[in-house]
Amino acid sequence: MARYFNGKEIELLAPVGTFEIFKEVIQAPCDAVFFGGPSLNMRMMRKGYNFTLEEIVQATDIAHELHKKVYVTVNNLLSEDDVEEAKDYLRFLEGAQVDALIVQDYAVVKLIQEMGLDLKVHSSVMMNVHNLETVRLLQELGVTRVVTSREMDLQTARYIWSQSGMELEYFIHGDMCVAHGANCHFSSVVFGMSGSRGKCMKPCRWEYRVKKDGNIYPADYPLAVKDMYMYENIPELIESGICSFKIEGRMRDVDFILLLINSYGDAIDRYIEDPIGYERTVDSDKLYENRKRDFSTAYAFGKPGLSNMNRRYEGTGKFYSTGKVFSTPTAERSMKEERVAELREQLSQVQRLERSSRPELSVRVNNMEQARMAIEEGVDHLYLSGDVYLPDVPFTKKNIIELSGIKGTTKLYLGLPRMMTELHFEQYGELLSREPLGIDGLVVTNSGAIHAFADKGYPLIGDTSLNIYNHLAAEMYAGLGVQRMTISPEMTAEHFTGLLKNSRLPLEAVVHGSPTVMYMEHDLYENTEVHESVGEENNHYVDNSVLVLMTDKGENPVYRDQHGRNHLTMAKEICYLPLLKELAEAGLSHFRIEGATYSVSQLRTIICAYKAAIVGEQFEELQPVYAGYTLGSLQFN
């Protein structure tokens, strides 16, 4: 089966969760299906779903007999323990002759290359592909299709397609995340269940109160997004260069999936048959009556604002409308001495061949006052944030040159925005192509930035947003020019020590601070600008000017950066101070302090404590600035 419009193939891609569902869906008017196997995919939370190996073979044979395609999701992050299993699984999938894999982790791309396998790769939405430079890199790596970032508008999609010719796959219907792909670590730090490994506990669906400036605002479910709905925009999707129209719903029942396939399939066929007389709304009422949540076109036509937030089902705390919730509000675990002792023992078992003679201290700062102080204190590496939290302003060229003149032995790095638009590449490309800035490197936040700036002559440091979870991904990035990698903040203790054992590359980890656990285009501050307050209450740990999301379990500050994006941070502070000796002996070469949210005096105290601990000196016991100390995802094995 194939559909064409102006000579361009159009694919309707359907989700299937089980082999029984597949047998019905494959007979429907879809062109391809996608599903997961017994492991290594992003839908591991529902027992009885996903395919056995035998079912993968049978499904592929049936689909090919009908001239349809099968894509298998191998789309979670791999731990070190997953690598050998992945090798066997990839060999099996090649033998099964599936049409492509949907992949998040660059380790899978590396394995396919090293093993010489004949497998096509489609980049998962969890790769968060959102700019042309990333697409060009993926093309060079042999990727044949990109599932675009959920935040990509159709105008950007058309530009990327016209410039690259890359096949683009776009979500047209179903459940969406509020955060950028692979940029939500909330489930990991609260439950030890990684959203990037198919085990998200959906803290975005909790009931929160929004609080700012001493006022409470009526936004009960401010992170619960509506379902994607592009049924009435088939012409715009085709015109934007989208070749694959993707329906979300591998956990949905067969009747619901068939309703979507039949409606969207009919709409595509009617448009191809008569684009001038095409009627957009034939099944609109039917789809609306059978919706799981209310509908939105999300970011397809620009930022949707609060109109993208769902309230029909009390924030959709229900699991597929059956009444089962993923989770209820849960506090971040406090750091306990018993857990510290367990981690010391685990780290002592790491036998890494290459160890740093002395760990070095890195600090990320948000403003010039913090930067000058960090230089005064002699930190080894100073990162100037590319996502500056307001009301501070971005670092200017003049600021950078000033700091480079006083940095002394401190190495100075310019951080890039976590998500970079085409405008950002224009701006940073111009800045870095001029006379030397006096910096010692760049902190790269996405793979497109690596592709764009690797030839500028600056050493590259991989940021947390690269989500390095295994040594293969680290080696892939190293081959692209990254000299030091920051470990994924989602790693449990077992996976953390596994990476330390297996990687020979310099590794950095965030050891202190309240880092971002959810990064999003969605602007929570808009709630305070369009709604009247319904009560008064001061923030407990941060200034009242900072918005917080509040449950009965705590308060999570949310910072808005200069790009208008929001960074939801931890309520507690990560503190690995009691573990520094063991981390160093296990081979961690760089310790990072996330300093953006602290005052200058608070940050100075933290820096001094870590500097003293690194060289084995006594230091004054640190007191938490926020709601207490936590070990983050290292709380969990």
Describe this protein's structure.
- It is a single chain.
- The protein is an alpha/beta fold.
- It folds into 2 domains: 3-176 and 225-308, Alpha-Beta Barrel (TIM Barrel); 359-513 and 574-615, Aldolase class I (TIM Barrel), CATH 3.20.20.
- It has 20 helices and 28 strands.
- The protein has an 8-stranded parallel β-barrel, surrounded by 4 helices.
- The protein is globular, with a radius of gyration of 24 Å.
- Mean pLDDT is 94; it is low at 314-323.
Summarize the structure.
With 637 residues, this protein is an alpha/beta fold. It is built from 20 helices and 28 strands.
If helices are DSSP runs of H or I spanning 4 or more residues, what is the number of helices? 20
Mean pLDDT across all amino acids: 94
Instruction: Report the sheet-strand fraction.
Output: 15-25%
CATH topology of the largest domain: TIM Barrel
Low-confidence stretches: 314-323
User: Which strand order does the major sheet show?
Assistant: 2-3-4-5-6-7-8-12
Structural class: alpha/beta
CATH architecture of the largest domain, by name, is Alpha-Beta Barrel
CATH homology superfamily of the largest domain = Aldolase class I
Radius of gyration: 24 Å
- Estimate the helix proportion, in percent: 25-40%
Specify the biggest β-sheet: 8 strands, parallel, barrel
